[in-house]
Amino acid sequence: MDDPKTLIVVPVFNEWPHAMGILEELRDRFPHILVVEDGSSRRLDRKELKNKGIHYLCLPFNLGSWAAIQTGFKYALIKGYDYVVTFDGDGQHLCEEIPALLQGACQENLDIAVGSCAERASRLRKACWVVLRRLSGVTIEDVTSGFRAYSVRAFKKFAEFSEANIEYQDIGVLLLARRFRLRMGEVPVRMQSRRGGESKVFPNLSSVARYFLITIVSILVKWR
Amino acid sequence: MAIVSYQTSSFVIAFVFFILILRLIRKGRLHEKYSLGWFLIGLGILFFGALPRIIDRVAAYLGVHYPPILLVYVGMGLLFVQQLHLFICMSKNETRIKELAQEVAILTKLLEEKNEEEKESP
After folding, report:
1. A49, A16 contact by CB (below 8 A)
2. Contacts of residue A59 in chain B, CB cutoff 8 Å?
3. If you compute the radius of gyration of chain A from its CA atoms, what whole number of angstroms results?
4. How far apart are CA A110 and CA A186, in angstroms?
5. Taking the CB of residue A88, how many other CB atoms lie within 10 A of it?
6. Contact check, Cβ <8 Å, A78/B106
7. Does the structural domain A6-221 have CATH classification 3.30.300.20?
8. Pairing of β A55-58 and β A33-37
9. Would you give the distance in Å from CA A82 to the centre of its chain?
10. Which residues of B touch A63 (CB under 8 A)?
11. CA of A101 to nearest chain B CA: how many angstroms apart?
12. Rounded-to-integer distance, Cα A65 and Cα A147, Å
């Protein structure tokens, strides 16, 4: 199979209207795009998306970014895709980098390929990465990157494991992946600073602290 | 000088709790599967409310010098266990709700797709 069937999953939460431009860009390059709306208060225009040929899933209420992605996995499983690429709707990820990510995943036969971009991180963020990496033993550098390609082996596991109630879709997912014995790797990609909307994960400092503490607890509890 | 004795007041409070539990079970506000546990808890409250001096005896038997602390200690322990149990239930329910919401979203999407197919090829 030279051309694996790939679904691009874009979780969005109150990202209208920035998301539309990004979705159009994606649409021009890739045939299968699924927008998963995570119970936003401002809904995307269903008709407009349909006219543009973009698939659209709408969760009835906010479940968090990982649950939205998991919904995408379930859909991809039903529809028989080979790869799922998770792509943020906030303009941070570049659609021209998707082929490189997929190629990296295919060539090295990875179940999870993380698109990593070391330049985007501030010094504090890098320090956090180091701490989390050391504690968890995960060797991937950019653990917080949401730009990832999942093979069918990987997303099948995540779709069927309903207890995967992960708060943050980064290191918790990687730890779970390790438990599932999935092959993980990193593909260097370029990224952009956010075009619009604030970071879903870190709107303020206390949420960063919460993230950090929850992640550390989950690492300590789910040791090797 | 107290107007009512300590035994009377403790009994009245326990009785009110007992009746409350009974009413909640009767109206179905507490589900049947929880009714037995809460009925027993109600009976326990009623028993110790009616005979509060039993606690002094039990405390003496267990070597606790200050009897009221025994009540506090046991009560806190029970509350802790119950709270933990509640959080476990809540986590389980959250998972179930999440699964349902995801199913609903996917089913809605599949139904839409099916309707469209039928429209295209009648």
Report:
1. no
2. 101-102, 105
3. 16
4. 9
5. 23
6. yes
7. no
8. parallel
9. 16
10. 98, 101-102
11. 27
12. 13
SS3 A198: coil
CA distance between the termini of chain B: 90
Closest CA to A149 of A41, A3, A7, A1: A7
Question: Edge-to-edge, what's the strand order for the sheet holding A112-116?
Answer: A55-58, A33-37, A6-12, A83-86, A148-151, A112-116, A184-188
The pLDDT confidence band at residue B99, using thresholds 50, 70 and 90, is: very high
State pTM to two decimals. Answer: 0.82
User: CB burial class (10 A; 0-12, 13-18, 19+) of residue B109?
Assistant: buried
Strand partners, A189: none
Residue spans of the domains in chain A: they are 6-221
The bridge status of strand A83-86 relative to strand A6-12 is parallel
Q: Is the interface score ipTM higher than 0.85? A: no
Mean pLDDT by 10 residues, chain A (224 residues): 76 76 86 87 74 86 88 93 88 85 89 83 74 80 85 90 69 83 88 59 70 80 63
* A168 alpha carbon, distance to own chain's centre: 10
Residue A10 three-state SS: strand
Q: What is the CA radius of gyration of chain B?
A: 25
Looking at the complex, report in whole angstroms how far the Cα of residue B96 sits from the nearest Cα belonging to chain A.
8
HSE-CB at A32 with a 13 A cutoff on CA atoms is: 17
Is the CB of residue A34 less than 8 Å from the CB of residue A9? yes
